[in-house]
Amino acid sequence: MIYLGIDDTDSKLGMCTTYLAAVLAERLSGFGLTDYPRLIRLNPNIKYKTRGNAALCLTLDAGPEAMDEAERIALEAVGEFARFEDENTNPGVVLYSGEITADLKEYALRVVRDVVEIEEAETLARRHGMRVHRFKNGRGIVGALAAIGLELYDFTYELLAYRMPGNYEKPRQLDRDSVYAMDAATYPDTWDNVDLANRVIVFSPHTPDPVLYGIRGNSPEVLRRAQAMLKTEPVERSIIFRTNQGTDMHLLCGSIAEARDDRSYVLKGTVTEAAHAIEGGHLFFAIGDGGATIKCAAFEPTKGFRNVVKSLIPGDEVRVFGSVKDRTVNLEKLEVIRLAEDVRKVTPICPSCGRHMESAGAGQGYRCRRCKTKAPAMAVERHERTVEKGLYEVPPSARRHLARQIIRIRQPWCAVHPSR
Ligand code: ATP
Description:
alpha+beta, Alpha-Beta Plaits, Glycinamide Ribonucleotide Synthetase, Chain A, domain 4, CATH 2.40.50.1010, five-stranded mixed β-barrel, 8 helices, 20% helix
């Protein structure tokens, strides 16, 4: 087998490395492809990323003797499609014919979860006798090597459909009703096509790249069935990828004290500060565990998810899922594990007239001026909690590629509240 990894060929102004992979799948089809090409999402916090930090890998059913020809075809396609003019485009191409060893798997998982240096990727690839091609600063080899090495212990599929090149500049044409009908007919085996609560189509980008839409789901069969239901502008080509999207593979388990910027975590803690809003509707609250605390954020685009965040009070036990930036967890999911009692101290009520009493002076308790009744101290009011225990997620319109959809989580002991 020959593994061909590619990354970092596109720019914000156009192209998409998935498109290059789709073209290469066609040009290399003479060798025979084993399995679906792999669309691997890497650490979503990497500052160099163009959009979704994707890297691609094709696996050819060929021995080392086919390496020269595969390499020639791959490099020619990179030369033809990569956006070299963008200073942030630094393509990397890696070819390998060998075993996917434990050190390659370990490296790849680190690229999904952590930050690695270009030199580490180069050294590792060369140690395995891989052919490594770096264009410009060649940062793309970091992802290209990870796409080859990653073990997909969990995976989903995505069908990507691309536009006719002549239409790139024009608005995308998709029949809304057909998209909603496709979603209704195939959910929960496909997901994140539309955001029902916020009434938007989310499976089609608005960026100037060749992608018309991407349908995500459980199996290639359901994706093909879903595609057949859509009425859209002409599709130039489409391809199904096996992917680590929707797997939570980016999340590290850790303690609040250890959580570092640019990584993503699952952190358990107790709410220490209820949510407060800042301009723009972004909400912030804080959680703590054994002395360390961390801020958590639900930004405005997370829409209705913020209602859950708003209803948390100090003492609630939660588990938060998301990326850390500036010591703040940017929430992707939230599990409410235990609800604290909502007990509030209020001025006592007068037993005669039913109105709130007033302070009778420092250390003097409370009194009703009208009825002359007295109470020694503040009264306690218990409020019923409105939020339910269980797992909550941000809506599809705010979902990250790697975030595992709640409908993909089977935990009988935990109530789930999927957002669709
Ligand atoms: P494309 O569709 O072209 O892949 P993108 O949004 O996926 O666009 P890239 O343009 O590939 O982003 O830019 C990401 C760059 O960061 C790549 O060069 C990749 O090799 C590198 N990279 C990805 N993950 C890591 C990581 N964990 N540590 C260091 N570098 C990384």
